[in-house]
Amino acid sequence: MSMLDTMAAALLDEGRSRAEVYGYLLGQFVGTPYVWGGSSPLGTDCSGSVCACLSRATGRPVRVTADELYRRHFTTDVPRVECMDGKIAAAFFLDKSGRAVHVAGHMGAGLFLNASSIETERKARPRTWNELLAMYRGFVPALRMYPGTDPGTGGKSCGKKEAGL
Asked: Are strands 43-44 and 39-40 parallel, antiparallel or unpaired?
């Protein structure tokens, strides 16, 4: 059993939500070196960190690319970052053909874990939505959540009419 498995089990036993576990585990990747194809706190790429945390938070093993996460796992659009708290969610960046080429997992409180080769010192770090938008200028941004993890909006209006990226 890995450190992430142990942490996830303890948090779930405490009664934490799956979204809280996902966000907490993403935090364990802060400072992790960028390693293409990696998916552990020893070395990770963008989809590796998201897959590792998603697998442990949901109990469903998954290790796929950013594009497959976008198409098969995070399939529900979220209109604004403010509507992501309490959800298993991620930010995606799509190329001109509509393929997701980058993913950053939502840690909570408007922060995303950015594991990227273009990141400072090639280490995963928390970034705000606006920082990600600046870093991935030229790509189409999308905010999405994992289905079935929406506990409500906490009084926030998150309708599509107000959507603004």
From this structure: antiparallel
Q: Strand (E) positions, the chain?
A: 39-40, 43-44, 76-77, 89-94, 100-108, 111-114, 125-128, 140-145
* Helical segments of 14-99, H only: 18-27, 46-58, 66-68
92-127 residue pLDDT tens: 999 999 999 999 999 999 999 999 999 988 999 999
Q: Which residues pair with 57 in a beta bridge?
A: none
pLDDT in tens, 47-84: 999 999 999 999 999 999 999 999 999 999 999 999 99
Nearest to 55 by CA among 40, 70, 76: 40
Contact call for residues 8 and 17 (beta carbons, < 8 A): no
CB 99 within 8 A of CB 65: no
Residues 117/34, Cβ–Cβ less than 8 Å: yes
Amino acid letter, 79: P
The residue type found at 88 is I
pTM beyond cutoff 0.85: yes
Rg (CA), the chain: 15
